[in-house]
Amino acid sequence: MSVDVGSKAPDFTLTAQDRQPVTLSQRRGKPVVLAFFPAAFSSVCAREMCTFRDSLPRLGQATAEVYGISVDTFFTLKAFHDHEKLTFALLSDFNKQVIRDYGVFNEDMIGLKGIARRAVFVIDKDGVVRHREILDDARNEPDYNKIFTELAALA
């Protein structure tokens, strides 16, 4: 299954690093960035999450909410969140349903089975996917300029 640009974003409720539930459909009314990442504390994932953290003022102009999503437990995500001083929620897809729903389930990455591919979805205020980028190589980061351009168009 894959989620294409122009389609409704699959709804979900996941637990954030602070153990609070986050439901995507309750975020309607403002753009949302979903940043799927393979594993907390890996170097590329830390760089990506810190880039989003450091870009929040720019994203704030688009009133976008950012969520990082991985299959790590919320305990691990809390430690990662605190370590990197992140200012947005990290969501635990421990049961691996959301990564399947979004078509970013990675069968095997260097022996790590069933984790998220690195991927970014920009969802508009009505819950429609406006940008999708799924990376084949987890060592690469997403094209931030395309993300910001899409968010600027939604503002």
Helices and strands in order, then pairings?
Blueprint: E1 13-16, E2 21-23, E3 32-36, H1 43-60, E4 65-70, H2 74-83, E5 89-92, H3 97-101, E6 105-109, E7 112-116, E8 119-123, E9 129-134, H4 144-154
Parallel strand pairs: 3-4, 4-5
Antiparallel strand pairs: 1-2, 1-5, 3-8, 6-7, 8-9
Task: Describe the structure concisely for a colleague.
By secondary structure, the protein is an alpha+beta fold. The protein has helices at residues 43-60, 74-83, 97-101, 144-154; strands at 13-16, 21-23, 32-36, 65-70, 89-92, 105-109, 112-116, 119-123, 129-134.
Strand content: 25-35%
CATH H level: which superfamily? Glutaredoxin
Q: How many DSSP E strands?
A: 9
Structural class per helix/strand content? alpha+beta
CATH architecture: 3-Layer(aba) Sandwich
Q: What does this protein look like?
A:
With 155 residues, the protein is of the alpha+beta class. It has one domain (40-154): 3-Layer(aba) Sandwich (Glutaredoxin), CATH 3.40.30. It has four helices and nine strands; from the N terminus they run E-E-E-H-E-H-E-H-E-E-E-E-H. The strands form two sheets. A seven-stranded mixed β-sheet has the order 2-1-5-4-3-8-9, covered by helices on one side. The model has no long low-confidence stretch (mean pLDDT 87).
Task: List the keywords.
Glutaredoxin, 7-stranded mixed beta sheet, alpha+beta
